[in-house]
């Protein structure tokens, strides 16, 4: 293929990727969008495979490529088919780490065979390319190690609570400065040792940056790492002069940045406040009971069943607790019975419910809840005053009225679901413990709240039997 | 006549314009599909595999350690990127297939 034809093909691949994201504007067009993504990928890979540089390479190279794609493709497909939907956040974190490591390997290879990439000779790589490959490898290394930490936290391999130590910010700052200095030194002298020390420090920075961030801030972290993986790809794209890679990098970079912004806004916190870390507890660990003698109205599964059956409309508010308890399927069964009794049921999703953007929507879709019964905060919040029951399952902080009334509260100003406006609030919870933000939820003590203590799945199961 | 424009400038132009395209396209994505958005962006960012293909097919007849490093690193990168490409698209497809309208 001629150079011009290849460039046009890469452009076509880039356009396919834009259309892939465009398709996600509605569930109806989304499957076609995903197909466009695959098409773009096929075009990009085929174009490279048919380029003169690769065509003239030896038989062994083709064999290695085939074996590599076969191994990677089988691993990826098997994982993708087997992974339970509740594990999506850790899967995405793991995938981000792979993109990061791939960027490191490609930039590292370019350092040893710059002529294959058309960026000069060893020892005399073009200045622009030195900068591009340095940025690509730094961001790639950061994405890799940061995603590993995020993965470990989401999977529960390490504690989800923030790990803070004195001098943390100074340490991160020092590592950051060292990386910049090393990068400048490498760009001047192209010394390989500087390049690799710089890369090692970037790996280290990924760890120290993400370690202090707590589990429930993971939606921001995953989105941010998503963005980083895009910028790393763009950096490599500049090194290769490859349009498809530049377009993809810019798309993914801005996508992740927008998602981070939406998540921060959903918590009313600044991006820096999240990144500096140290916020929050490990969430509802159970067993902690408040030293509060205010009366709480407790209910049994039978009481809840009675209230639900006699309601005209119910709004369900799911949270991370529902995912942990795997309660979505039994919840769907309960909803179906209520609907048969003539109850109108809808779902209200807070932007930061769960551990990644859109987490609750996927779990509900998995349980075959139709997506047109699931609403975002701004679309449904005005309907709580006319609802008979708000059914809170596994959510806590996102329903706390203190966010609206108490300027002293750490969650003050966060947009919340107005569940307290419903005639009755049914609140499933393991104990009276505090939520992730470490604050009491005064909703528990309200006159119209009935607390249902127990595991979410078991409680819904019991309600189901009593209806 | 002015000197020819450095190709870098064209790449930069594509990069900057695509950031704007990305901005508008991503804001139009429905929040219900934010998880599939992340998995599909993850899959497409693995187009970095094209860089790995170049590394694998370096001319190893040029006998130095560098070409072997590039070939080994490239092979490893091909494996990682393939995991992502196949895994990312398949898991996205699986998720999207679950979104159904009310009957």
Q: What does this molecule look like?
A:
The complex is a heterodimer of chains A (467) and B (103). Chain A has helices at 3-23, 27-49, 52-55, 59-82, 88-112, 127-155, 168-189, 192-210, 218-240, 243-266, 271-276, 301-309, 320-325, 328-340, 359-366, 377-380, 402-405, 456-466, and strands at 120-121, 124-125, 313-318, 344-349, 374-376, 389-393, 424-429, 449-453. With 467 residues, chain A is of the alpha/beta class. A 6-stranded parallel sheet of chain A has the order 5-4-3-6-7-8. Chain A has a two-stranded antiparallel sheet with strand order 1-2. Chain B has 103 residues and is mainly α. Chain B has one domain. Chain B is 71% helix and 0% strand. Chain B has 4 helices and no strands. Chain B has helices at 7-27, 34-45, 49-56, 65-96. The longest helix of chain B is centred in the C-terminal third of the chain and has 32 residues, at 65-96. The N and C termini of chain B lie far apart (67 Å). The relative contact order of chain B is 0.12.
Task: Tell me the layout of helices and strands.
The complex is a heterodimer of chains A (467) and B (103).
Chain A: H1 3-23, H2 27-49, H3 52-55, H4 59-82, H5 88-112, E1 120-121, E2 124-125, H6 127-155, H7 168-189, H8 192-210, H9 218-240, H10 243-266, H11 271-276, H12 301-309, E3 313-318, H13 320-325, H14 328-340, E4 344-349, H15 359-366, E5 374-376, H16 377-380, E6 389-393, H17 402-405, E7 424-429, E8 449-453, H18 456-466
Parallel strand pairs in A: 3-4, 3-6, 4-5, 6-7, 7-8
Antiparallel strand pairs in A: 1-2
Chain B: H1 7-27, H2 34-45, H3 49-56, H4 65-96
